[in-house]
Amino acid sequence: MTDATTLDAPSVTTGGNKVLILGGGLAGLAAAKRLVDNGFQVQLVEKRDIFGGKVSAWKDAEGDWVETGLHCFFGAYSELYDLMREIGTYDCILWKKHELNYTLSKGERFAFRTWDLPSPFHLTPALFANGYFSLPEMLAFAKVLIPILFGGERYYEAQDGMTYKEWHERQGLSERMMKKMFLPMSLALKFLPPAEISANIVLAVTGEFLRRPDASMMGFLKGSPEDYLIGPLVNYLRKKGATIQSGRKALSLIYDGNRIAGAKMDDGETLVADYYLTALPVHNLKKVLPENLKRAHQFFRDIDEFVGVPVVTVQVWYDRQITTIDNILFSPDGVIPFYADLALTTPEYAVLRGASHQGKTRFQVGVAPAKEVIKLSDEEIVARVDASVKDLFPETAKDAKILKHAIVRIPQSVYAPYPGLESKRPTQKTPVDNLFIAGGYTKNRFYDSMEGAVSTGNSAARELMIRHGVKI
Question: What's the pTM value of the predicted model, to 2 decimals?
Answer without folding.
Answer: 0.92
